[in-house]
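Severity: low
Component: inverse-folding endpoint
Summary: output formatting inconsistent between runs
Steps to reproduce: submit the following structure tokens with default settings.
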């Protein structure tokens, strides 16, 4: 394997840790719980998006996080019409943690991390295909612009 390929792997591992560490700090949780929270929100969002928008969004993610996003994906079964409460319930179901987490706060924290690392423009783009009740989970700037 060339040095360049190893650098790509090292970079994506580093970026993934940055995302998880940022979420852990914002949510006052350990890294394992932050990983579960990130995975839960990304996969719930993925299942709510039409396949073309999910693919465009995933292309913006670091390679390892993109793999988390696509894990178990069934593009023929999307988008699922989830209400805000159903969206939050799905997040709760996907987080297997001894610590009880508020899915509303988890969603908001993950979307804030997405805005931080991808920019509010990316959230704005996916917000265009989501109902207002789900956009309300976005940080104020991204949610307010959709």
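Observed output (run 2 of 3):
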């Amino acid at each position: 394997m060339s040095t360049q390929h190893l650098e790509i792997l090292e970079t994506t591992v580093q970026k993934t840790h940055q995302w998880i560490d940022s979420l852990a700090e914002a949510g006052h949780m350990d890294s394992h719980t932050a990983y579960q929270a990130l995975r839960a929100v990304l996969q719930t969002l993925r299942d709510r998006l039409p396949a073309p928008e999910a693919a465009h969004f995933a292309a913006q993610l670091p390679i390892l996080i993109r793999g988390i996003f696509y894990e178990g994906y069934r593009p023929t079964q999307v988008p699922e019409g989830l209400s805000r409460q159903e969206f939050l319930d799905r997040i709760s179901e996907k987080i297997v943690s001894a610590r009880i987490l508020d899915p509303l706060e988890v969603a908001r924290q993950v979307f804030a991390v997405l805005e931080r690392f991808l920019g509010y423009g990316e959230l704005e783009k996916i917000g265009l295909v989501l109902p207002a009740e789900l956009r309300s989970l976005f940080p104020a700037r991204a949610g307010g612009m959709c």
